[in-house]
Specification:
Chain A has three helices and no strands. Chain A is mostly helical. The chains are: A mainly alpha, B mainly alpha.
């Protein structure tokens, strides 16, 4: 479960970085990445309430990074 | 002057420099103990609330002020505030408003750097001492080791001096050739070290007792304990947002002043916030707490400000490869502090360059000398008194690092969002990839954010008044910063001296700021109408 969660988490936030569409970024980084991280930390022994909170916060931040930073990097490349 | 100003070379360079500005000791050192002390998960609710309704609006306001200021050739807060304030009030009133804001920015920059640069020196010293294994012997008490460090003039002055000179060297290279270049190297290293340390921390397991594990540390940090959700934790969370995003200091505006006139500020501001939150919540929340919990249990996590310098060294000597991990941890803190402090150096260098015509290369070293002189009492107090209260530092931090930021934040948001209003919204959105919705600006930035800051300020003021903190009696002041009764005669004068220095710097700050505005806009202040537009 730890590994499946980790793959979902890393895949979700990684694809969120490269995707162009903001909705795809949201689904990939926030939803898939968040669920993946929840699965990982619960499997490692965290309580479900703490894991829910942590995963929500982490998923939000990774989505926030994915939604903003690559757009600026791409703007640089295009310039 | 506007034509010859330096600008950022690339957007990613700008964002890394801005992230370096925002990501500081607060992310890795202050955030974990603030979160742990204020209920863990229940701290995170007001924390995110403050991020949305306080941090992000203020960040965008500061970027807007900075870009406007840069267009007119200014890198400091006073004329920037003047330019926005004059859109809705007379130039004379705008000049006073700008001078008051500039006074707080000047004080924060000068006084905060005086002690912040010393803490950066400690981190560099500890990084070196970790590598040499100086505290690795279990017979060494890490608390006593820290006290002996801050009382040792060689350690204190050598590492502080190296830090100051490195910062001056970086800033002397200019915005593109110095700050951007260094941030482009140091920030990826910071994130890499942070990720390595976080992976190591989370995978520690339970090396001492089965009930002490790294995952239990994360549980402690993230468990929403609703009963702990209080006004105090809400205020602590709001204070942490100010500190971590470096808002209310004037340094975001300074960096934003090197933007080109139509550069995007909305997406750039949001990217800065996102990278800062990554460093704080993801990395800062996954290193110190899990490590301390795994080796020291819940009590270790609660060791507050001593978590980094006193509790964690205990852990590093038990950890396999502890010398390397310890050195890495303190070097991470060093980079975080360094990239923030150069923003404060640049503020003073810009001021010297624009107001006194001093060349940047010389100005950067004058800035180092200034911070050295202002910071001397911080270094000398433990050395001369042979105590470890750091009362002078605490007194400065109580006002500058906690109170003045909030006052300046309130002035900034009132001037740009509440008073100027629609014009500021249009200015903010000029050249933006993603625009700030009008409803968000009108409801949150114009009213909710200033009200939120005003509430924080009111409660903080009440707390300070209740604690007798507006008193000028050295004994009362010394007690407020935690000095024992028997040491009050020895430490009281240091606290009083800190208070006098703060007031002196405020007065100087007001006059410097007012004259900075008057130098360029004296004619329009005299005539009572706007004459200069760019």
């Amino acid at each position: 479960m730890v590994w499946i969660g980790l793959i979902l988490f890393l895949g979700g936030i990684g694809y969120g970085w490269v995707a162009n569409n903001q909705w795809v970024k949201f689904i990939s980084a926030f939803i898939v990445g968040g669920i993946g991280w929840y699965m990982t930390v619960v499997a490692l022994g965290m309580s479900s309430s703490a894991a829910t909170f942590m995963s929500l916060a982490w998923a939000f931040i990774f989505w926030f990074v994915d939604a903003t930073v690559p757009t600026l990097v791409n703007a640089d490349t295009k310039a | 002057m506007a034509e010859t100003r330096d600008t950022w070379g690339t957007k990613i360079g700008l964002i890394l420099a801005m992230a370096g500005n925002a990501v500081g000791l607060g992310n890795f050192w202050r955030f974990p103990y603030q979160a742990a002390a204020n209920g863990g998960g229940s701290f995170m609710i007001p924390y995110f609330f403050a991020l949305f309704f306080l941090g992000i609006p203020l960040m965008l306001v500061e970027w807007t002020q900075g870009r406007t200021g840069g267009r007119y050739g200014h890198g400091t807060v006073a004329p920037m505030l003047y330019l926005h304030a004059r859109e809705a009030m007379s130039p004379a009133a705008a000049a006073i408003t700008g001078a008051v804001g500039g006074m707080f920015a000047f004080s924060v920059m000068a006084l905060l750097t005086s002690y912040y640069s010393q803490i950066i020196g400690w981190t560099l010293g500890y990084s070196y001492l970790s590598l040499t294994g100086a505290y690795m012997d279990k017979a060494v008490n890490t608390g006593a080791f820290f006290v002996s460090y801050i009382q040792n003039p060689w350690y204190v002055f050598i590492f502080w001096g190296i830090a100051l000179l490195l910062m001056a060297y970086t800033v002397s290279g200019g915005v593109q050739g110095g700050i951007e270049k260094w941030a482009s190297v140091m920030m990826p290293i910071l994130y890499l070290f942070g990720i390595l340390l976080a992976i190591r921390a989370i995978t520690l397991g339970a090396p001492v007792k089965p009930e002490w594990s790294a995952i239990k540390g994360l549980d402690y940090l993230w468990e929403p304990r609703w009963s702990d959700l209080t006004w105090k934790s809400a205020l602590a969370a709001a204070g942490q947002i100010f500190f971590t995003l470096s808002v209310g200091m004037g340094i975001i505006q300074n960096y934003a002043s090197y933007l080109k006139p139509d550069d995007d500020i909305v997406l750039s501001g949001l990217a800065t916030v996102s990278l800062n939150e990554f460093a704080e919540v993801i990395l800062g929340g996954s290193i110190a707490i899990p490590i301390a919990y795994a080796y020291l249990g819940q009590e270790g996590v609660k060791s507050g400000v001593g978590l980094s310098f006193i509790a964690l060294p205990n852990v590093f000597r038990d950890l396999p490869g502890g010398q390397i991990w310890g050195s890495l941890w303190f070097f991470l803190l060093f980079i975080a502090g360094f990239t923030s402090a150069i923003a404060m150096f640049n503020y003073l260098s810009a001021m010297l360059e624009e107001d006194a015509g001093i060349n940047r290369k010389v100005g950067a070293y004058i800035a180092a000398l200034t911070f050295f002189i202002i910071g001397l009492p911080v270094a000398l107090e433990p050395i001369l008194t042979k105590t470890a209260y750091l009362a002078y530092l605490t007194e400065l931090d109580n006002w500058v690092g906690s109170y003045f930021l909030v006052v300046l934040g309130l002035i900034e948001v009132l001037v740009t969002a509440t008073i100027w209003g629609k014009g500021a919204w249009e200015e903010m959105n000029r050249g933006a990839y993603v625009k700030v919705p009008r409803w968000y600006f009108e409801i949150f930035m114009r009213w909710v954010t200033p009200l939120y800051i005003a509430v924080i300020l009111t409660f903080s003021t009440i707390d300070y008044a209740k604690g007798g903190y507006f008193s000028f009696n050295p004994a009362t002041l010394a007690k407020f910063v935690g000095v024992a009764e028997k040491d009050i005669p020895k430490i009281g004068p240091w606290v009083l001296a800190a208070r006098i220095v703060i007031i002196t710097v405020l007065i100087i700050g007001f006059f410097v700021s007012y004259s900075s505005i008057k130098r360029t806009y004296g004619e329009e202040i005299a005539q009572g109408k706007v004459l200069i537009r760019r």
